[in-house]
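Q: Could you write out the predicted structure for this multi-component system? I'm mainly interested in how the pieces pack against one another.
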Amino acid sequence: MNIEIKESNGGYNATLFGWLDTNVATEFLEDLKTLEAHADKAIELDCSKLEYICSLGLRGLLKLQKLSVAQGGTLVLKNVNDEIRGILTLTGFIKLFVIR
Amino acid sequence: MELVFLGFNLYAWITILTVLTMFTVLLFTKLRADLVFLGAIAILFVTGVLNAKEAFSGFSSTSVVIIGVLFVVVAGLTHTGVLQWIVKHLLGQPDSYSKAVIRLMLPVAGLSSFLSNTTVVALFVGIVKIWSKKLGVSPSKLLIPLSYASGMGGVCTLIGTPPNLIISGLYAEDTGITMNVLTTTVPGLFCLFVGVLSIIAMHKLLPDRKAPESAFESTSEYTVELLIPSDNPYIGKTLNEAGLNNVRGGNLIEVVHYDKSVSTADGEDLVMGGDRLIYSGQIDEILDLKKSHGLVNADHFVFTLSEVDTNRQLRTAYVTFGSSLIGKMIGKTSFEKDNGLVLVAVARSGKRIEQSPREVVIQAGDTLLLDCPPKKKLDISSLAKQLHFFESDQVPNIGRKTFISTTIMMAMVVLSALNVIPLLQCAFLAAMAMLIFRCCNVDQAMKAINWEILMVFAGSVVLGVAIQKTGIAERLAFGILDVCGTNPIVVMTAICFVGTFITEFISNTAAGAMFFPIMYQAAEKLGYDPFPFLVALMVSVSSSFATPIGSPTHMLVYGPGGYRFSDFMRIGLLMNIIILAANIFIVNIVYPLTPLH
């Protein structure tokens, strides 16, 4: 488990944590489906405890982002640490997400 | 009391062990040959086998000095376009393979009899490849003859190949008699004549192989790796949306992401900065895609396209024997970074390799397509040990200086052949004339002197001295006489036979220096003048046809011809025997054996 999801004020707050590599990415993508089902809502992802994210995990987040835009919802990444910011910069995904 | 074992004293055993170790090191390691020779000399000197004068005799040897000076003379010829002039006017448009072989081998042999064989072959390789296309003949049918011709041509004069100079120099030191510069001309020409006929007769033994760089000209014969920079506009789109999945004349094989995970190309996969896209297909189409989609070569990560020099160009090069890249993946070395190059594609024996190019374990003779800095910024000479670039950078204009440098060269040969001026002085005068008439500048002259080769030559001379001084040569000569009896022609043939095969594995010069004392002693023991024996030796140590490592010129054609090791053996073993027979025959006619008084 690399994600904890809570419903709050009609939207969703999720906390990502730990080392999200290819070994756990499939499970993570499965968990993301809960958020995908509510992509029309406001979703906030807290990344402060996330140590690493692999390409598969990142693609899952982008998929969620696209779905969110398509359904009129919002997706915000919060408390992005340097490690994750580095990965987002390298992949060019930093421009695709709203980061706070 | 002197320690003697199996007829050899302690010094002789030290010499034998040193020589054996040296050859083992040369064969199985990539240590520089000059260092190995220097190490051997150091051992022989420190252990007392050689005194100081003997240990350093190689460095003052006339033949070694002549070789050094001749480098400058050759630089003059090279920089004034003599080679280019000959290439342009002599090859022509022959209408059959036999005529093509003659048109190629005779001028190459002629040039090699005065110039360095390696220089001549290096220049001809590129031209022969273009020529073979025009003739509709596979380059592999012409490149082995090219290399063989340079070897056989080199034998035709004393200055044509270093072993001739070394053997004649040692002969002069032992007897006080200087050999004429044209001593080997008649035997050499006869062997060349036999060699050309043999190549034509045995041309079916030459492989009909596709030119390696044709892999870069036709469809689906190569693999290219391209990288998505972090600012690429297609990031976040699917491969299909970005138009990166399907390329005309090829396809995307796989995608390697920043975390090293690999996914087979799925059109719905999202494009991500740092992705390495592995394509197979037509090079021009992929390069068009590279341009239109802002991709870069995948040597190191770049964040923006502006970090990449747009003046870079693609060039083809072959991996040389002894290259430190052999057995390694280029992606795991600092080679690209150190030299400012990027490996774009790899082909082997004309075929694409089904792998990401930077993960291919490199082999000698592989053809690499490299993304290089502009010509002015790329130092090809520093890469010469690793790679041989297809096109030559030095294509001088043909003009008045071409005539001047040719005249200087011809004057040098004629004056020394007629014994008007000794060869050493002639070579010095010619080198000075080349500089005075600006056929080459001082910088070019200094760069032309190959110190590594000179050190090996000097080392070879010293080893020859040790072999002679410790009595090894004498005992080996006696051993050969015991086996071969007292028939001088049998003895001459036997030593030449061994010399021919040894020289397949060691440098011709080292073989010459080492077999000189053995041949000399054997001739004397039989009661004959060593002169004809040594002429036969000169021809045989330069007749290494059966392995690509037998001569640097074979290595030069190995990659471009798309050859395999066995290709040289198939025709080369027969050539070794044929040229040996021709050699013994002609030497005994031109220089009949004369008993010593």
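A: Regarding packing and overall arrangement: Chain A has a mean pLDDT of 90.
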